[in-house]
Predict the structure.
Amino acid sequence: MTDPRPLHVLIAGGGLAGLATAQGLLKSGHTVEVFERDADLDRKQGYYLHFNAIGGEALRRCLPDDLFALYQQTSRQNYDRHQSIVLDDQLNELSSREHMGPPNDGPVPHTGVHRRTLRQVLSARLGPAMHTGSPVVSFVEDADGVTATLADGSTARGDVLVGADGIRSAVRTQLLPQVPVIPTGIRGIGVYGRTPITPELDALMPDILDQGVLMAVDRKGSRLLIANFRPRRAADEAAADLAPDVVLDPVAGYIMVSCSLSEGTVVPPVAEWTDQTAVDLRESMLAALEGWHPAARAIVAGVELESMFAIPFGFLEPADDWASSRVTIVGDAAHGMLPTLGMGANLALNDAALLVDQLDRVARGEAELVEAIGTYEEQMREITYPILRMTLDHDKNFGGGALEEASGDRHAG
Ligand SMILES: Cc1cc2nc3c(=O)[nH]c(=O)nc-3n(C[C@H](O)[C@H](O)[C@H](O)COP(=O)(O)OP(=O)(O)OC[C@H]3O[C@@H](n4cnc5c(N)ncnc54)[C@H](O)[C@@H]3O)c2cc1C
């Protein structure tokens, strides 16, 4: 049995999973160092994240009370229906199904967040424990600890290394080299942007568009994903009130948009985008929505060109059980999935909470370190793998178009 004591945990990746793990461990009295590849939080990764009680309650577990209140207050306003709703091209309801996750009907239900705000909340108070511009490239484990090597050749030593470095995780690549990323490219809903909610647009929108994340489809196969973000409170004001040491950028209400492109449109790789690319892609979206409800077309016409970006999707197949060690993985590094069920971030945060629970057992002397990590990994696989599989199935109809071709083709890369 490991001596009861707080652990020193190295975390590769300062995305949602890594930062939530860091906050949860600090809350319990452990020490952490987070190594984030990017120099800042500016990479375009999406805007609105749909949340349910899986992710939201994991945040309650990991965050100190004031930062949790800040998450809640900067989240989207309540909506009436906790359902995923599918509409036709005239924005009439076609079908709906309950959101996933445990009951979510408390006084402040979990709704959705602006990703950048949540990342700012999760980064709060990490101080010198947060190292940006510091990718982890490899690790070496021994009986007493683990040493991570960074891209500049320097090293860091800890009791545990957590790979929270996203779907193309360097940590997973070394730990589980047999698990490939299956790239699906940019199809279906791979191009994103956001539209400010002006009074004119607001007046045009049917009420149903205020129900969280919606997918509209037509008979030609065009799809429009929209998520309407109206925060409960302005982020900067909420921070000044609830946690004055935390700086949050102001965010005005917006609609996150992802839309099919007209047939034959080629999306250039991000590095080749010019000023004209976003103009052309927005035109192509409008062409794909020929004859749709005026509000749908106005939402797309209003997409801010500078907000547009393309995400090449990918996913992991569930890995077979592996031998546990001092090195583990959380979030997309462990179960990167297509975004169509809106579950990846929720599950990433849940991993963080499960892992913190297990490392706390070690600190209390209730479990041996590698056994506790094994328990976390078992729980993580049990919860996430069925959802990973479900996402692939759901995607056939409504998602990134990942599996439009025969399933054998998807391994072609
Ligand atoms: C367009 C889109 C919409 C989505 N919508 C939803 C939604 O509504 N709800 C939902 O639950 N999920 C959603 N998801 C999924 C969700 O974004 C991911 O599941 C979530 O971000 C995973 O968090 P993570 O911390 O595991 O990985 P990431 O957010 O990818 O973070 C990984 C971090 O690691 C860093 N990194 C990478 N390599 C290294 C390295 N070698 N060393 C150090 N750092 C490294 C990266 O820079 C990054 O900051 C969506 C995803 C996309 C793309």
User: Anything to note?
Assistant: The pocket of flavin-adenine dinucleotide is lined by residues 12-18, 35-38, 46, 49-50, 135-136, 164-166, 170, 192, 311, 331-333, 339, 342-346, 348 (CB under 6 Å). The longest helix spans residues 369-398. Confidence is low (pLDDT under 50) at residues 400-413.
